Fold:
Amino acid sequence: MTNPEDRTTRVRIRRAPKFSVFLVLGALAGIFVALVLTASYPIDPKVGFGPVFGYFAIYGFVGGLLVGAIVALIFDRVLSRRGKTVAVTVDRLQVPDQESRDD
Structure:
């Protein structure tokens, strides 16, 4: 049984990156870069490795988040251009009331 509300519409289908994954990976990469840079240079014995690494990790974290967000936005822009428009038929089903089924 066809319903008069059935209709065909056009929708755009495309892949979209998961921004949270890019942000987390960017932040982790930024912290790793901070670790490598901190370990590459001599540390002041009065301060120690931990506080210096923590200080640079804050900047690495924020920088990694920014880089991850920019990469995700670039991927989103590129993938949006590759999207396809397709025709979709929307079917609406009518379920009979509970009272009419009991009769």
